[in-house]
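Backbone shape codes:
===
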Amino acid sequence: MAFDADAGVLTVEAGVTLDAIIRFALPRGWFLPVTPGTKFPTLGGCVAVDVHGKNHHRNGSLAAFVDSIDIVLAGGERVRCSRSEDPELFWSTLGGMGLTGFIYAVTLRLRAVAGVWMDTTSVRTGSLRESCDVLRETQDDHTYSVAWVDLIASGSRCGRGIVSLGDHASESRGNRPLHRSRLTTFPPLPAGTLNSLSLRCFNAARYRSQLRRRWKQRQHYDTFFYPLDRWAGWNRAYGRRGFLQYQLVVPFAGGLEVMAEVIAASRKAAPCSLAVLKTFGDHPAGPLSFPMPGYTLALDFPRTRRIVEQLRQLTPSVIAAGGRVYLAKDAILKADQFEAMYPRLDEFCRVHQRVDPAGHFASLQSQRLGLT
């Protein structure tokens, strides 16, 4: 809808995907200021969950880069909100799961970059504690940091992994190709293909693929930010029952022990097919925004009734530690658990009651959590 090429300020309809924004902005020397692990969500969806990325410890969530949001309210009127214009609606929409109204357009500040390349460092770790330590020790040194951790490994090796640290390269040589090609679509696999044995073999091979403890290289941004996007339909590897995601954040103080408890108990119910560990910094956020200072651990499981029940039993430990669960990946929270996790819930409810008193905007999740 509008673009200031000098300042990198983009106004775009909310239905445009992150991939489309990259294709437009990157040839002009700009990139997304915050991105999740896939480039195919819409920008409106990312605003609705106040999406975070590998740079939250330094830059915060998407909220830090959104200047204004145009919303169509339940009554049909189109309004604009920002930090100075109806700031309550602005902050409640960031992370508000689409419940404040229909996000029509977003004005976003992009990040200036030299090209498609990333200067990265990979650090191999031997335990969950070491993975956490490397992430904490490198917070001031790199823009992006994330750790893949192996939760299938036994004993003290559980939580070993590879910490990936990255920064945009300062020079633009060799800027082609702009995108990596997608690989073959996964066929649906039989139930049980992703089991403890197959995942143990895969994780061991991935861990041992890095021969040195520390490895520096130049990577394409697609490889660094979006490794799973190369596989169209990768979720089919889980079979027809699909998979369950569960992402938690816990404060740094005592957070390692809580994560270890969640890992140990969930292992009894289902093998964790993918585990990603990051750190969050202290940045402004909306009442329902997920990030808070601490460790965040994202877990993927083959979906079974047993793992759902186990995670529900573990959630009180996350609450007791002062943590919370990411609403964008929630499928199991109960209303009382949700209320205990988000202390600014009343603030959101006041805004929601003002802009949508009849509750026209709702979802299965909002009904389950008692929001609508």
Remarks:
- The first helix runs from residue 18 to 25.
